[in-house]
Amino acid sequence: MSGVRANGANRGMRAGLAGGIALALSTGCGSATLQVAALDTMERVRERPGMREGATLAPEAYARAEQERRIALDEHGAGDDVGAVLHAQRAVAAYDHALTVVRLARATAELAESQKALDDATTQLESIESSRVQLEREAAELEVRLHVSRERLLPASSAHASPEREAARRVAARSLALEARLLCNAARLVATDASGLPDALGELAKLEGRLGSSPPPIDDAARLRARCLDVLTRARRATGDDTGASDALLSELSAAGGWDPVRDERGVVVTLHDSFRGRELTGDAAKKLKDLGRVAAAHPGFALQVVVHDAQPPKAPDETDARRAAVAIEALVAGGAMAARTAPELAGARAPLVAARDGREQARNERLDVVFVASGQ
Fold this sequence. Notes:
Blueprint: H1 2-46, H2 54-57, H3 59-78, H4 81-153, H5 163-190, H6 197-208, H7 218-239, H8 245-256, E1 262-263, E2 267-273, E3 276-277, E4 280-281, H9 283-298, E5 303-309, H10 320-335, E6 342-348, E7 367-373
């Protein structure tokens, strides 16, 4: 019986030993597979697209991964498979971290580029919108100016009126014709070859021959005034911008005191009263004209119109107004004005300040206008 028990024990020991050997072999095979898979995974992760950028964008994480990889390979070569697996897994984690940092950096860069593109587009849109608003404003202003110009060039025809009204229209027609001539002659001072000037002056000469007709040509006079103003405006546009010279001159004369300058379509106007004794200048007028000559010399961009107005129409033709204009120009030139850019204008009594029938105020109609004609717009 003891032999039987002994044999059974020996068989159990042999079976346990065999089982242990099998388990050891099985464990050994599993470890070898794990080691190869861990190293292969590490190398695959290392070769992922974009991983090379980790050296630049995530240098610390990438350097740590490379260090763990070298240790894993060294320990695998030395036979320490457990250490090799551990360091390979650490390397994979570090590579994943580096790749995440790379993707984050890319996303941040793309976000910055997108934000810059958005900011640029927003700025461009705001500029376009501002330009659109400005263009619409300018278009609206041009529409208004065009409407005003059309209304000036094509005023409504005047209907029939009473004799008193006709008489008033005759005075107005003569005044409008005078203003037209002053505007056209101002255009000639700005540019002797002003566009449209010869035709306008030709029409004006015809009109002046009809001022005594009935009914008075008030509508034609209004149209010619607008036409001469257009000629002056275009002459100035061709010459250029006066860059605020008219405003500066007006301010200077106003600040000096005693001149009372005003603005009209021609430029800056200074009016002198009681300037003549007969055909000659008074002493005070001569002094004032020399002072204005010095002003003209200081502002050479302006031409001068010297306009002589009468208190009432002369009973017979004489040379008084022509002489008065000549002596006034002589005083201006003596002060420094350029004779070549100074022109006389004989207005007669066509632009009265007060009604000619008012004897007490009639003397105010006699005056001398010195007009600084602005060359630019």
